[in-house]
Structure prediction request, 261 residues.
Amino acid sequence: MSTPSTTTWTLVWSDEFDGVAGARIDGTKWGYDTTDGCNQGNCGWGNNEKEYYSDAPDNIALNGRGQLMIVARRAPAGLTCYYGACRYRSAKITTRGKMLAVPGRVEGRIKLPAGQGLWPAFWMLGQNVAVTGWPAGGEIDIMENKGSEPTISSSAVHGPGYSGDTPFAHRKKLDTGSFSNDFHTFAVEWDSLHVQFFVDGIAHYAITREQVERYGKSILDQPFFLILNLAVGGHFDGDPQSDAIFPATLLVDYVRVYARR
Prediction:
C-alpha cells in the first residue's frame, strides 16, 4: 500500500483554472450548486451545514495565477437560511450534466484552509443519483478534511448498506507539514473490481468489490460527476466556535481526469 500506481494513463478532461483574476468558472465544465440545500429538498445539505452556497465572485473566482478560489465568508445581512439568518456564505461546483468521469483516475491539486468548523471536499456522486437517490446512487470521497485537523485528510465510499458512518473510510495523516501550508495532490483510481485512494502519489487506502458486497450492492462500476466545495459547520467538524477563521480559502490548482491506456 506504499507504492505509487504503475498504470499508464491518458488525460481525457481537465481544468487548469487559467484566466484573469476574478473570472468565473468555465461554464462548459462546471455548474454551481447554490442556496442552503432547501431548494433541492435537502436543507443543510443533509449534514446540518451552516453555509449558503453562492456564485458571487467574492466566494468563487479564478485568482489570475492559474488557480480557483473558493472562499467561505461571514454571510451578508439579509440572507436567510433554514435555521434563520445565514451565518456563512461559500461555494460549491459540480460537473453534473457537463462531464462524467468513467472508471479511471481523477486527481486534484489542492491547498486547504484551516480552522475548526471548515469542511473542504473533493468528491464524486454516481451518474444516476438524482434518480436512485443517496446512498444507492453511490458516493466516492476523494478528499474530505476537518478544519480542526489540518494534517489529516480522509477518503471514503458510500453506497446502499454502507453509508453515513461507512465502514469504508480511511484517514491519512501527513508525515510532515499540513494540508493548509502547501498544495497536495488527492486522487482516486477505480474500476468495477476495486477503488484506491492516493495522497501525493502514494496509495493510502484500497477497497475491493468483494469487501463492499458484504454490506450491499457495489457502486463502483459506473461513471461519476465531480464536486468541489467548502462547507461550514454541520456534523463533520461541528459549527465554528470562532469566526476569526474567516475568510477561509480553498485553492484548487487543477482537476484532471484520466482513462487507462
